[in-house]
Amino acid sequence: MTYFQNTIVQERVLYFFNKSIEQDRLAHAYIFYGSEGTGKEAFALELAKAVNCLAEDAVPCNSCSSCVKINKFSHPDILYSFAAPGNIKDAEIRDLLKQKSANPYRALPIAGHRTVSIDIIRRLKHEAKYAPNEARKRFFIISGAQFFSREAANSFLKLLEEPPENLHIILITNELHLLLDTIRSRCQPVYFPSFTEEQIKEIVKKYQHFEGDLTAIIRMAQFNLNKVFDFLIDDPTEKWELVYAYLKSVAKNDIPSILSIIDRISEKRDKNLISQFLSLVILWLRDALNISITNDEQALVNMDYGEAIANFSRFFEPSDFGSIIEKVEQARTDIERNAHPALTLTHLSLEMNAALKRKTTDQVREEAI
Amino acid sequence: MKFTISRNSFHSTLQKVIHVIPAKSTVDILYNVLIIAEGGQLKIIATDLEITQVAWSECNVEQDGSIVVPGKLLMDIIREMPDLEITFSADNNFKILIESNFGEYKLSGQSKTEYPSVPLVESDEKIELDNSVLKRMIEKTIFACSTDNLRPALTGVFFQIFEEEIRMVATDGHRLVKIVHKNSGNQEFTKELIVPTKALNFVARNLPEKGKQQITFSESHVLFELPNTNIYTRIIKEPFPDYERVIPQNYTKEMLIAKDDFVSSVKRVSLFSNPMTYQVRLMVETDKLTVHAQDIDFGGEAKETIPCSFNSEALEIAYNANYLLDILRHIDTEKIKFLVEDSDGPGLVYPEEQGENEEIVMLIMPVRIRS
To answer: Which of A2, A215, A346, B309 has its CA 20 to 30 A from that of A274?
Structure first.
């Protein structure tokens, strides 16, 4: 019997679970943690499939009735719940599950305040009191474990402490430290590092038709698989143009142009959009720093703008980029914590302008030789 | 797949299982029913993952097959049809065509593979019970079950199968019912398990008046075999409390009272009880019983006296009127035997005479009277 032959997963995770399954020593509860886009939820489902697969040699087979049901979230003993807004409707949940089943590597598109509500835990507890329907081992998968409400967490402890036989709980979180100590100490943590470039390419091939080279997109997404899918659907070129225009105006201290760009970014009142924009600014500065040291355009994240970045680093003192990056990061944190976006961005632009030191013409000429 | 069937038998088959479909669920597939046509038989299966019900009827099968169909939609179509021949067919792309003299309906279904499988109940552990006995045992116990999920074991009825007798016990911590069916014979095994109340409700609803039926027990499921339908239910895997220890054996103080008088008196008086506690006080004397309730907050008060016979000195005891009425209503005899030792201990309620092959005990915990 071989496990996870067709599963794309980080090597250390694979090794760990291969051993656990072979020795039949699966823990009653795991926490899968690691940054966004590392395939934690997808692997939780793979694990449930592998343990319950009806095939006799390579599991999971993805074609037996058990695997198909788990893939479609209709397996009666494999329950997948996720942190959601409190007023979410059943129809919306079903819709989200359909999306998840189409591509388990994508994060669910849930906006707003999310919690793992007490209702979810009640449902799981209700389910736990019965004998399993058809599975050999039952799995309860809870995604977004950092969003446990207080009542839910406390109610959940009982189940976590005395789980019935053959029930495995998998908590999934991006932020391990936000979990209650009492929950964390009762689970075995499993760390999911980022995927490698090859792994991401392979996974993308499975779920999305894409012609061309993914390398640039993968670097731009910083090996975050979820972002890779985002960029595939929503082309980032437009955003780069905006970043380029913004930095140009900042460098020139062209205040009207800066303000109009800021208006454009903040008019939708979407924090994520602004934070994404600032991340791109940081990436740009990082590239500029990179090119000023190595002079290697191939190593850039943003290869389309290689020349512009090279020019940028030629005219400005690279030693200041570090402190500027810090300022941008600070602005991003502030906005995520509900600072006024337009004001923060304006302030940031002025500060950046003050910090950018233009090299003298002589210096530039000297370096060019 | 393709089959023809009369509207009436299609309707009655679907009608049996349609109530199993959950009103609210996050699992999409549960809103569907699985239809299987093979060997001259139409089988319809519905499940909410707790209960699975299978119903069948004769039909004319032209081509074997199976398909998953939206349950409510199908029911709505069939319900509105007059009694005609219906032809039901589905192709390999799960497109369904329903034809009758009136016209045709097209809808799309899904593959059978995604539908939860019918539980496998293969076991030699079977018992046979008269329908009337089973129905009676269910009705007498089910009301006392708890709805509190904190104590999962109490949300079902406890079945105990011994070689000589079958017992069913239900309790929610405030009251307890034990009903024993004696001399059920032919048992070769003993078994204890908890069956969820929801399933028992379905069984009671589907039970015909006459006949016998078989119950099969496996490790994780119970199967009730009823005429033209099977009901599978999951078992609650929790330890049931040791109820025998709660039932006192050596009570001597006994009150004998007419059931109807007692019930209606408690009903009337309890209208004046505190809406939070529903507390009614019973003052038992040798020849009369005084039922008293008072709602201090609103100043309402009621008091009634009814005749009874009691073999000890006077005693005052208080109960939650709702629990008390629940229990009294489920006694069938004209007179009730009410055993009580002191105002803090449990009260035991018996029918004046136990039925043939039957033993019923009901227990109710008192409300402590402030003194």
So the answer is: A215
